[in-house]
Amino acid sequence: MSIDETGQYVVEILHQRIFAAVTAITLQSVPVAAKALRNGELVAIPTETVYGLGANALDRSAVANIFAAKNRPSFDPLIIHQSSADRILAYAKEVPAEARLLAAKVWPGPLTLVLPKKKEVPDLVSAGLATVALRVPDHPLTLELLAAVDFPVAAPSANPFGFVSPTSAQHVQDQLGEKIDYILDGGACRVGLESTIVGFPGGVATVLRKGGLPVEKIEEILGHPVVVKTHSNSQPEAPGMLSQHYSPGVEMWIAEKLNVLYPYPSGSAAIIFGNEHQIMQDDRKLDVFNLSPSSDLNEAARNLFAVLREISKADYPVVIAYPVPEEGLGLAINDRLRRAAARE
Ligand code: TXA
Ligand code: MG
Fold first, then answer.
1. Among all ligands shown, which has an atom nearest to the Cα of 161?
2. Looking at the structure, do residues 79 and 208 belong to the same domain, yes or no?
3. Long-range contacts of 312-315 (CB under 8 A, 24+ apart)
4. How do residues 50-108 score in pLDDT, each as one tens digit?
5. Is 73 contained in some domain?
6. Is residue 246 part of a domain?
7. Of 47, 94, 197, which is best to mutate to test ligand 1, by the most ligand atoms within 8 angstroms of its C-beta?
8. pLDDT tier, 248 (very low <50, low <70, confident <90, very high otherwise)
9. What is the model's pTM?
10. CATH number assigned to the domain comprising residue 81
11. Which domain holds residue 323?
12. CA separation for the pair 169, 174 (Å, rounded)
């Protein structure tokens, strides 16, 4: 960046500081974001999955600030990010052959690997676990940012704990703007669902969280079926597996069968997929949110969190969500819908 450009950013930043003292500064400058991270500040970063709330993973007080800003319980460990498989796997004590294969085929991409951690990763990052979650995200600005710093960046999704993950810079500003320093604006997230988390308990490849990388893809790469964990409240494998998460703050029902009319108070809303739903023909007043009119699961994934966010802003007595087909990204979409509707 030239001096001119730097000067321009300084003016821009001063301007924003004065006129929007309680919001985060939104920028597209990688050098400014890198400098902030080096100073121990919080920077929201774009990824292909969702926006993350980033800080230097090796700086304990910066990491503590992530937990504080999100209001996140400290038993919930963070994912650390770097710009290449070599750079991020350097924080794992052992890397099983299957982990290496997945890393080579998918990174940069929507996959997180949980592996035994090296001592230099602070216990706060891993919530005291012997493992650490590692990822190389696929977004040009963030890859450039990660390449510019000599530490891994810890980044949970940039939302208050328990709420819907952000898929745009504005979502981050709306929910966390008062609590963080900078938002690196990389546009709308291409995938829209968090990464798929794979661990190797007992040496067996296991999906700990369904996400932006379909389970079928993992099985294709490894050449065999994998174990897929479902969520539980009593003993969460990954605390993000708590049943109630992604809460839109309204009463949500899951319609387990397609093309069945459910009773609902007028003025309610429905989340649907494709164009097969009879609900469209019902004459009671109903706001319909279609995740993908053309029945495209990738598009539905991209739209899901924005729809949940919009629903949470309105005052619907009831929201009925129709699950999408249980294949590809559909597994992760249905998982998020069910958890948004969970009441415990
Ligand atoms: O796509 C993503 O994964 C985004 C972007 C920003 O990379 N990050 C994200 O982070 O979704 P977060 O903190 O919202 O979810 C991370 C999940 C949590 O459920 C956490 O419990 C789990 O990863 N996790 C982290 N470390 C773990 C570990 N050592 N063992 C098991 N689960 C772990
Ligand atoms: Mg999260």
1. 2
2. yes
3. 312/164, 312/248, 312/249, 312/250, 314/250, 314/269, 314/287, 315/250
4. 999 999 999 999 999 999 999 998 889 999 999 999 999 999 999 999 999 999 999 99
5. yes
6. no
7. 197
8. confident
9. 0.89
10. 3.90.870.10
11. 252-340
12. 9
